[in-house]
Every structure is written in C-alpha cells, then in structure tokens.
Amino acid sequence: MYEVFEHTADLGLRVRANSLEGLLAEAGRGLFSLIVTNLEQVKSVQERLIRIEGGEPEYLLFDWLNELLYTFDVEGLLFCEFSLQLDATGLTAMCRGEAMQLDRHGMDHEVKAITYHGLKVQQASSSCDGHDRWLAEVIVDI
Question: pTM for the whole thing?
Fold first, then answer.
C-alpha cells in the first residue's frame, strides 16, 4: 500500500508492506502513480530485468526508484508490475509495463529526482499475525 503526501514544493511517498520485497514493489507502483494519472491503464506488454547492488534497505530503495525514473526518462517506459527477489548482494526485479502513450496515459507530475531528504525504511516488530511490517518514506523532486 502506498500513499502520497505533500512536502513543501515536492511530494512524498509513504509505503507499507509485509516484506521488503513487497515494500520495494509498492514503492515502484507509487512512483509511477505520481507520473501518470491512470496507472491502472498501463499494460504489461514489455519486460525489463533490473539489478540493483547493495544491502542497506534505504540505499536499495533510493537506487531502485532512481533506476526506474532513469528508465522512464530515457526510454519512456511506464511499469505497473514488479516481481522482486532479494539476495545477499542486492535485488533483481522483473518489471512489466509499456511505453508511455500520451493519448492513453495522462501525465500527472514531472518527477525530476528521488531525494535523500527524509528517506527512511523501517522494519516494525512482528505483528500479532506473525508478519513483519515494513514502512518507507521518500521525497521526490517535482
């Protein structure tokens, strides 16, 4: 689950999930929901494998979102589905989506950069149902 919040002249993204993989996938969806108004209309017709090296959750989140934004800026690819796997050296993600088409995808915000300001990733203690809870916040420059 993700939600957007206002932050001075920028926007913030708050993400919650039961796992770190889920958190990163939701953060990806959240990022693209800032870029287009109708993320649900993005079709899963292209695949892209992305590998991010690193082990610290904050840096993984930052580098992950940065790579997604870079791919959008350079190739115009919008992603709507993410299958992620974490290992000791980083993350591997299969991203699915399609090229942006202005006649179908409504542009919402021009995301210029992912920032370190306010960046946090936290793992909460186990809940009563036995699942770990993860929370992340990141500010994006618009």
Answer: 0.90
